[in-house]
Amino acid sequence: MSxxxxxxxxxxxxxxxxxxxxxxxxxxxxxASAGSEVHVVIAxxxxxxxxxxxxxxxxxxxxxxxxxxxxxxxxxxLDLPAAELDGVPAAxxxxxxxxxxxxxxxxxxxxxxxxxxxxxxxxxxxxAMVWARPRSAGAPERIFAYExxxxxxxxxxxxxxxxxxDSFIDISAQIERKVxxxxxxxxxxxxxxxxxxxxxxxxxxxxxxxxxxxxxxEAFMAVRQIWRAA
Amino acid sequence: MSxxxxxxxxxxxxxxxxxxxxxxxxxxxxxASAGSEVHVVIAxxxxxxxxxxxxxxxxxxxxxxxxxxxxxxxxxxLDLPAAELDGVPAAxxxxxxxxxxxxxxxxxxxxxxxxxxxxxxxxxxxxAMVWARPRSAGAPERIFAYExxxxxxxxxxxxxxxxxxDSFIDISAQIERKVxxxxxxxxxxxxxxxxxxxxxxxxxxxxxxxxxxxxxxEAFMAVRQIWRAA
Amino acid sequence: MSxxxxxxxxxxxxxxxxxxxxxxxxxxxxxASAGSEVHVVIAxxxxxxxxxxxxxxxxxxxxxxxxxxxxxxxxxxLDLPAAELDGVPAAxxxxxxxxxxxxxxxxxxxxxxxxxxxxxxxxxxxxAMVWARPRSAGAPERIFAYExxxxxxxxxxxxxxxxxxDSFIDISAQIERKVxxxxxxxxxxxxxxxxxxxxxxxxxxxxxxxxxxxxxxEAFMAVRQIWRAA
Amino acid sequence: MSxxxxxxxxxxxxxxxxxxxxxxxxxxxxxASAGSEVHVVIAxxxxxxxxxxxxxxxxxxxxxxxxxxxxxxxxxxLDLPAAELDGVPAAxxxxxxxxxxxxxxxxxxxxxxxxxxxxxxxxxxxxAMVWARPRSAGAPERIFAYExxxxxxxxxxxxxxxxxxDSFIDISAQIERKVxxxxxxxxxxxxxxxxxxxxxxxxxxxxxxxxxxxxxxEAFMAVRQIWRAA
Amino acid sequence: MSxxxxxxxxxxxxxxxxxxxxxxxxxxxxxASAGSEVHVVIAxxxxxxxxxxxxxxxxxxxxxxxxxxxxxxxxxxLDLPAAELDGVPAAxxxxxxxxxxxxxxxxxxxxxxxxxxxxxxxxxxxxAMVWARPRSAGAPERIFAYExxxxxxxxxxxxxxxxxxDSFIDISAQIERKVxxxxxxxxxxxxxxxxxxxxxxxxxxxxxxxxxxxxxxEAFMAVRQIWRAA
Amino acid sequence: MSxxxxxxxxxxxxxxxxxxxxxxxxxxxxxASAGSEVHVVIAxxxxxxxxxxxxxxxxxxxxxxxxxxxxxxxxxxLDLPAAELDGVPAAxxxxxxxxxxxxxxxxxxxxxxxxxxxxxxxxxxxxAMVWARPRSAGAPERIFAYExxxxxxxxxxxxxxxxxxDSFIDISAQIERKVxxxxxxxxxxxxxxxxxxxxxxxxxxxxxxxxxxxxxxEAFMAVRQIWRAA
Lengths: 230, 230, 230, 230, 230, 230
What we know:
Six copies of one chain form a homohexamer.
Chain A: E1 9-14, H1 19-33, E2 37-45, H2 53-70, E3 74-81, H3 90-104, E4 108-112, H4 119-131, E5 142-146, E6 167-170, H5 175-183, H6 198-210, E7 217-227
Helix pairs in contact in A: 1-2, 1-5, 2-5, 3-4, 5-6
InterPro entries (chains A, B, C, D, E, F): GlcNAc_PI_deacetylase-related, LmbE-like_dom_sf
Protein name (chains A, B, C, D, E, F): PIG-L deacetylase family protein
C-alpha cells in the first residue's frame, strides 16, 4: 500500500477553469479512483465586457463535464474577476480563497505556480499560501505547485521563478482520461503546435514520466510537506 | 494511518559518523519505532596520519552506540578515506556507494546536502544521486537532503547552493533521544556556542518545528519524489 | 573599539508594530546602549472594520512600551492602512516612507525582507529601497534586511526570494530584553509552538548565534554597504 | 554578412523617455545604420500634479531629438501614467502595449529588465512578455532585456532578479552618438558621479565591451530566441 | 534569409558519443543542410577495464554512422578517459579541448550543460568555456548549452544549476533524422520509459517545440553571444 | 570616525599574483594609509614546464613592487602549483592556506570569488572559507569576495554563481595608485580592449563607484560579517 493514499482530502486551486486539468488532471483522476476527496476551487469567472456571460456559462459547463470525467468530488466557484485579480485588494482575494479552503479543510493542496506569466496564477498561489500558514496543527500537510501549459513556460527563464519539479506522480493509467477531460474544454483547446492541445499534453506527460521511468506523469514542486506525529 | 509509514526501507548516507545523527537522528528514531528498516551508510573512515586508528575505532564505537539508541537496523561502513574523498576517483566513490545502496535497496534516501562546506558531503550527495538515477522502476521513491550543524551553515550564502527546507518531520517525541544519541559521540561534541552542541541541536529542532507548528522537527529539502502506480 | 559604533543614526522600518522587535529588537537594544540613535518607523495602522480603533490603540501602546524597554530614540508612525498596502499607489507609500526617512536621515537602515509572505513587508522594503537610491553622498551607508518570525519562513522556498543571512549581530547580552519587549505585545504573542512565542524567539537567536560562535545573535542580509571616503 | 541584419524590425519598449537610450541607444543607432526599422514605444507620460505638462512636453521633445540622432524609425507614445503604472489594471497596460506592438509587428524586442527597482519597468517588461507569448508563428523571434543606469543597479542583489548579461552588441562605432543622444535629455542628465551622466554611460559601455573584447558594447539578457524554419 | 545561416562553422562538444545527437542532432542536421560546417568533438573514449576496446570501437562506429546521417563535416576524437575526467588534471583537459577548438576555429559552440549530473559533462563545459574566453576578436560569437536526456534531468532541482532554456531551434523537418541518428547507437538506446529512447526524444522535441509554436524544436541556454562590428 | 578603521588586520588571498591588485588594490591602499595591516597571501607559483622559473621570479618581483606601492604590510607566498590546484588534495590546500591565515590572524578577509572561471580561484575561496569557519570567537569578523577582471566576467551567467556586489569601498583617492600598481605587472598587462588593461580597470572602478555615488569604488560580496560584543 502506497503513501499516495495519504492524500485523502485534496484541494486543487485553479485560477481559471482548465488550469486544474492541465496541471493535475491525471492526479485528480488517480486520487479519485483511490477514494480520496478531490475538490476544485475555481478562483475566477470572466466578466463582461471582457467575457460574455454566455461564454462563461459555456466554460463553466465544460469544467463541470471535465471534473465529472475525472471523478472530482465537488467544484467550488469563487467568481472573482478573471484577468483582473490584480485590481482586487489582496485581503479580499485572501479572504475568498481562505474561506473556501477553510470549508474544505484539505490535507493536500495543489496550487498554480507563482512563476507563471499570468498574474492571476501568481495571486492565487499567494492567497492559498497565506491561508496555509502553519499556525495550527490543522495546516495542510502537503502543498504542491503544478505546471500549466501556456502559462508556466512563457515567463522569463533566469529572471522569474523557475519551475523545477521535484515530485512526480505516475499517471500512466490516467493520461487518456486527462486528455479527454481537457477536450471537454472546447472553448479553450487550440490546434497543435499551440501548447493548449492534446499533443502538447501528451508530450509533457511523456517527458515528465520518462524522467522518473514512468510512461506518463505529472510533475510538481514540493512547496511544503509536514509529517506530523500521529 | 499516515504516509510516514510508506518509508519502509530507509538509507541514511553519512559522509562521517555523526552527520546522520545531526541531520536525521530524530527521523531515524521515529521511523525505527514505526517499524521501518533504517540503514546507515558511513561513507568514510579517517586514516593515519590524519586520524589514528585508535581514534577512529573510538568514533566508530560511538556511532554504534548512537545507532543502537536510535533503533537503526544496520550500519554499513564503506571506509573511504575521510577528508580525502576529492582524491578518490569519482567512479570509485560512486561504485562503493552504489554497491552498498544496491544491497540495501532503499525506497527512501536521506543524503547530506550538496551545498555543505565539506567536500566529502558534496561528493557523497552526488554519488548517491548517480546511483538513484531513475533508470528502472526500482529507483528510490523519495530522496531528501538533510542539514548538518557545522557544515550546512558555513558555506557562502548567495553563492553556494542554499539549504531551503520544504519538508518537515515532527520529532517532538524523539528530540531527547536525538540529543542523547549525539552525546554518544564524545569525541565529536563541543561546548556551546559551538554548533556541535546539545544547545544548538535543540535550538535547530525548535526552530524547524515552530516553522510548521510542531515542538521539534527535522527539516529537509525534497530532492526527488515519485508516486508510482501500485 | 568596534565598528558597531559606526551605526550612529539607525532607522528600523516595521510594516506593523512588533516586526521591528522580532527582527532586530536585540540589535536595537545594543545600539541604544552604545549611544546610537534608534528610530522606529511603523508604516501601517490597522483600520476599521478589519481592526478596531481600540485594538489598534492597544497595539500602539504595546509598541511604545516595547520601544522604551529597548531604548529606542523615537517611534514614527506613518499610519498607512495595514494589510491593505497593495491598494495604496506605490508612489504614495514611497512618498510617506521617504519623507519620514528624509527627516531621520539615518546612516543605517534595517528593513523587512522582500521575500516575506506578507505583501506589506514586500512593499515597505521596496519603498525604503527607492528612498535609499544612492543619488547623493547622503544615501545611507548600510542597509540590512531582517527576518521576522511568522513572515519570513512561510513563503515558498526555492520560488520566492530566500532569506540567506550573511551578517550577524551578537545579542547575547540583549536577548532577555528582546524577549521581554516582545512580551509587551500581549495582543500579538501566541503560545508555542506558534512562531510568535518566546520559545521561538529564543531558539532563533540561539541558532543564529551558534552559527557564528555567539550565544545569541540576530541575522541579516546585507543589502548595500558603502564605505565612503572620510 | 552578419546575423545582426536579421533584426529587421525592432521595437524598444521604454517605460519613460531616456530608458531606451540608456539601455540600447548604441544598438538602435547601429541597427538604424544597417537599415533596420527601429521603433521606440514610450509607455508612460508623467501627469500633473506630479509632472507638469510643460515639463513633459520638454521631455518628449528631448526624446524626439534623441531618437532622430539615433535614426529611429518612429516613436510610439502610449501615454500611460508615469510612476503610477501599479495603479492601472494590468489588463489595461497589457492591452495598450499589445496593441502598439501588434501594429509594429517586430521580429525583435528590447525590454526593460524585470528586476529594475522602478515598478514601471517591471510592469512594462511583463506587459510586453504577455504580448510576446508564442501563440503563433508571428511571435517575435528575439527578446532581450536591457539594463538602465539608475534603475538596474539599485535593486537588492541576491533577493531581486539579477541582471546577468549573456548577449553583447558591439557599439564601438556608436558610443559617441549614444552619449550625445543622452545629452539631448537635458532634463534628465545629472552630474557625475550620478549614474545618469556621460561618464557613467561611457564606463558601462567600456566595461560591457571589454568583457567581450570590444571597445564599447551594450549588454543584454536573452529572454527568448527562436530560430524558425525558413 | 534568416540569421540561422550566420552559424557557419559550428563545433558541438560531446563528452561521450551520442550526447551530441541527444542534445543537438536536429540542429546539426539543419545546419548541415543549410551549408554550415558542423564539427563534433568527442571528448572521451571509455577505457578497459571499465569499457572493452571492442565495445568502444562499436560505439565509435555507431557515432560515425549517426554523424553521417546528420551531415556532420567531421568528427574529432580527443580520447580522454570516459567517466574518469575528474582524475585528469584540468589543465590537461583544457589543453586537449582547446587545441581541437583552435584547429576548428568555430564561430558557434554547442556545449553540454554544466548542471548535468555526469562530471564529464561539467568538466567538458568548463574546458570549452576556458578556451572561449574573449581574449581576442576571434573568440566564438555564440555559445549555447544543450540538454541531454538521462543527464540534464537527473541532477537536483533547486540546488544544482537548472537548465532553463531561452533559445529554441525549430527542427520540425529534422526530427525524424534525429531519431534515426540516435537509433544508430544500438549500444546506447534503451526501451521506453527509459529517457534514452525514441519516445523520450520525440516527447522532448514536441515539448520544446510547442513552447514556441513549432512542431519540434531543440532548446538551449544562451551562454554568451557577441554581435561584433562587421 | 568611520567604521572603515575597524578593519585593522586584513588578509587578501590571491590565487595568482595580480588578482589581489585587480580585486582590491584600491582598498589595500586605502586601508594601508589608514594604518591597517594589509597582508597578501599569494597561494600559487607557476612551475616548470608550464611556467619557467625566470618568468615566475619576474612576476613575483612585479608583485613585490606593486605591493610596495600599495603599502602592503607583508606578502606571504604559499607556492602551491599554479593552474594545477585541482590536482592537489583539498586537505593540503586547506592546510597551507589555513596555516598562513592562522599566523596572520586577520579580522578581515578578502577572497577571490567562488564563481570565477579559474578553478584556482574557486579552490582558494573554499580553502579560506574552511579556515574561517566560526568555531571560536577568533574567527574573522568580515569576509568579502572580490571580483577579478578576466576571471569573474567569463563564467556562465545564470548557471554558475553570479557576482552580485552588495558592498562598495570608495577608492576615488586611490584609483591612480591602483592603476600604477597593476602597471607594475608588465608580464600580466594586456592592451585594451583586453580586460587586463588600465582602461578596463578604470571603467570598472567608475562603474562600481557611480552605482553608489562615488567617483571610483571597488565592489564586493559580503560573505559573512559578525559584530561581536566588545
